[in-house]
Amino acid sequence: MASRIRMATGIAKSILSISSPGTSLTQSLATNAQLTRDVNAYAAEVVAAHPTRFGFFACVPFSDDVTDDAATAAAQQAEIAYALDVLRADGIALLSNNRGIYLGDPRLRSVLEELDRRRAPVFLHPSIGCCGSPSKVSSSYKEGYEQSSPLANVYRAPLFEFFFDSGRAVLDLLMSGTATRFPKVRWVVSHCGNVLPSLFDRMFLVLRLGQRFTTVRDPLNVTEDQLKAAIQEQLWFDLAGEPVPNQIDALLKFTTKDRLVFGSDVPWTPFEVTKGLVARIERDLPECIGIDAVDDVWEGTARKLFNRKP
């Protein structure tokens, strides 16, 4: 499959990752951990067989049926160490929520502490929103979507629910103080910032009004300047979807062009559609960011972000 899109678009190397619903498909931590290990090992085998054409982001296991949170954290940290040190993954992939656990949740702090220590890139891919507590979340992806969206029986999740949940995840990351707490994690947000450009000003307004961000958690005392710094220094944005010209123009009001990396969403975006999207990016991107920055978006920024040699 990759060779087809490579021939059609000139894409030389792809970073593989698992999309929603990820590898935590059961209520059993042991089962999810084994599936995660198998998926990561397979990705590493693909990279070993085609090292000039592929890299990969590794998954970590989650579960909603473990009373000992320490066991889940230990399994996650063990997989991070194995994936980065043994399998040589390019980074870690997290979903916008993992069985109802969003990025500001204290249960993720031990994982993020380890990723922060390693200065790891983390690719954030959207999933369906998750209603209620994790213990009440259906293990069925379809049922979970029906619970989270009043229009689930009309529209498929990628149309807009994915954008909403990505925005929800990043706002939680910022407003909970988690990004400030772990400043060395390098976040790659999918789909050119999704709905975030429409929400950042709202976040700043609430902060200026002096209103508490949360009703349950006790977040760090983050300031507007800290949040703006986190957006500009800790977040990168891929260009999967339809980024030019409108979406990228909105995003660049809050970040800089050196934070943009190419993304295609193949194979979930079909090859022929992707070919057209790439052609439109090639045509319109120079006007959006300037011709001098285009090569960095295609390749240069990703090489720096993932510490890759030419």
TrEMBL record:
Highest rank taxon of the organism: Eukaryota
Keywords (A to Z) from UniProt: Decarboxylase, Lyase, Metal-binding, Zinc
Enzyme Commission no: 4.1.1.52
GO cellular component, one term: cytosol
GO biological process, one term: secondary metabolic process
MF terms (GO), sorted A to Z: 6-methylsalicylate decarboxylase activity; hydrolase activity; metal ion binding
Catalysed reactions listed for this entry: 6-methylsalicylate + H(+) = 3-methylphenol + CO2
EC main group: lyase
Domain Amidohydrolase-related: 33-307
Similarity comment: Belongs to the metallo-dependent hydrolases superfamily. ACMSD family.
Protein name according to UniProt: 6-methylsalicylate decarboxylase
UniProt source species: Ramalina farinacea
